[in-house]
Design brief:
Blueprint lengths: L1 H6 L1 H5 L15 H6 L14 E2 L2 E2 H13 L3 H8 L15 H7 L12 H5 L1
Antiparallel strand pairs: 1-2
Organism: marine metagenome
Protein name: ATPase
Length: 118
C-alpha cells in the first residue's frame, strides 16, 4: 500500500485525500493549492500568529526589549552597529514553545495579556 502511494496510484484511488504543503513564505504553496479543483478540494492555510502578529515578531520584540535594558547592547542597537533577528523555522520551534508558556504569565518572564495587546 505504501509503495502504491509513492507512485501515486493508491493515492488517486482512495476516496478521501489529505495533503499538507509546508514551506517558507513565497515558495508557491498557495499557487499550487489554487490550481486544485475547488469542487473536490478544500484549501486551508495557517501560520504562527497571535492576533494579527506573527509569533516570531512578538518573540523578537521581547528579546529586543530585554537587550535594551543592558547599556552596552542598547547603544550598539541604537547606532545600528548590531541587529537582532530570529532563527525560527519548522526545524527550530523551541523558541515558540518556550514563548507560548510566557504569554499572560509575568511569573515566567512574560507580559500580562494587557501589555501583550499593546
Amino acid at each position: 500500500m505504501y509503495r502504491d502511494n509513492l507512485t501515486g496510484a493508491g493515492f488517486w484511488k482512495s476516496p478521501r485525500k489529505a495533503i499538507t504543503l509546508l514551506g517558507m513564505s513565497g515558495s508557491g504553496k498557495t499557487t499550487l493549492a489554487s490550481r486544485l479543483p475547488r469542487q473536490t478540494w478544500f484549501h486551508y492555510s495557517g501560520d504562527y500568529r497571535i492576533g494579527t502578529r506573527y509569533l516570531d515578531e512578538s518573540i523578537l520584540d521581547n528579546v529586543k526589549r530585554e537587550a535594551m535594558q543592558m547599556p552596552f547592547l542598547a547603544e550598539l542597537l541604537r547606532s545600528d552597529s548590531i541587529y537582532l533577528c530570529h532563527n525560527i523555522s519548522i526545524h527550530n520551534l523551541k523558541p515558540i514553545a518556550s514563548f507560548l508558556g510566557m504569554i499572560g504569565n509575568p511569573g515566567l518572564g512574560g507580559l500580562s495579556v494587557e501589555e501583550f495587546k499593546r
